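Lecture notes, part 5. Sequence design as translation. It can be helpful to think of inverse folding as translation between two languages: the language of shapes and the language of residues. The source text, in structure tokens, appears below.
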């Protein structure tokens, strides 16, 4: 506050001090902003080699406290650094598997789900985020989110496609923009449409008569198969089957699927013998729906996947 009759020297000194404070304050803001930008440019990401060692160690021990913290905070990693890089290993419908280029074995250690993605996750270019740890069969996978579009991760063409005869919900027109390519309009496919269709007809008695045969259904991470029991009740023809529950179908005759054993009575998953499955163990799988009646479903060509 300036007082009337205050000497001119005092007024000048007060003005000079206020101006200096503004300059200092602006300088502080500039230094802070510069520091943030510099810190972002020089940010050091955890090495892929250390992440690979962590995931490989899960065969002998539980995930460490550090990896659990990184998952909670959705830690970012570079997709490629000086020591290693991640690369797509296989693709089944809405699931993509990744492996480390520096890992010792050939089996994928990382997994990415599309059907579980409720919202768009922003991931910087050339990076991926840690999301969760998943137990599939007797294996553990580290779930990641890369932000890559499906065409960038697809290693084979085994994809569900739209089929208007199956009465799927209508799809909205969306714009797909690819880097260095013009904008095009396309129909956005439903994630795992055959599974969506099977769920709808199993819950609606009026639609069961219209079900076409030979629909291949992929039971992905949104609807894994849960082991219940080994069934040897058909003793007269020495048939052994393994009963699984389709977890996304409410308890009914339609929520059960019987997986035939091999000639030696074993259960096979990922082309290997699954020894001593426990009730509650979960796996992914594919099966061909041959027919659905008022009392049961008939499945063929059932294949189980650890991966």
């Amino acid at each position: 506050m300036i007082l009337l009759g205050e000497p001119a020297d005092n007024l000048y000194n007060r003005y000079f001090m206020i101006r200096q404070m503004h300059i200092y304050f602006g300088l502080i803001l500039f230094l802070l902003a510069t520091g943030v930008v510099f810190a972002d440019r020089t940010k050091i990401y955890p090495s892929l080699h250390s992440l690979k060692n962590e995931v490989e160690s899960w065969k002998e021990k539980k995930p460490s406290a550090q990896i659990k913290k990184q998952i909670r905070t959705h830690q970012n990693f570079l997709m490629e650094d000086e020591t290693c890089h991640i690369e797509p290993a296989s693709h089944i419908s809405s699931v993509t598997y990744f492996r480390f280029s520096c890992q010792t074995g050939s089996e994928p250690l990382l997994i990415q789900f599309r059907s579980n993605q409720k919202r768009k996750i922003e991931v910087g270019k050339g990076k991926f985020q840690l999301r969760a740890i998943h137990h599939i069969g007797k294996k553990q996978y580290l779930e990641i989110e890369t932000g890559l579009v499906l065409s960038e991760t697809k290693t084979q063409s085994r994809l569900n496609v739209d089929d208007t005869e199956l009465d799927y919900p209508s799809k909205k027109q969306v714009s797909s923009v690819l880097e260095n390519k013009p904008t095009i309009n396309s129909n956005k496919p439903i994630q795992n449409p055959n599974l969506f269709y099977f769920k709808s007809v199993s819950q609606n008695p009026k639609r069961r008569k219209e079900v076409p045969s030979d629909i291949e259904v992929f039971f992905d991470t949104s609807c894994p198969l849960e082991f219940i029991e080994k069934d040897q009740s058909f003793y007269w023809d020495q048939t052994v089957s393994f009963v699984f529950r389709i977890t996304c179908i409410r308890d009914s005759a339609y929520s059960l699927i019987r997986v035939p054993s091999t000639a030696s009575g074993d259960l096979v998953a990922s082309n290997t013998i699954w020894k001593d499955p426990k009730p509650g163990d979960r796996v992914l799988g594919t099966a061909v729906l041959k027919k659905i009646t008022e009392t049961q479903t008939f499945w063929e060509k059932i294949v189980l996947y650890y991966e």
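The translated text above is only one of many valid answers, since several sequences can fold into similar shapes. The chain has five helices and 16 strands.
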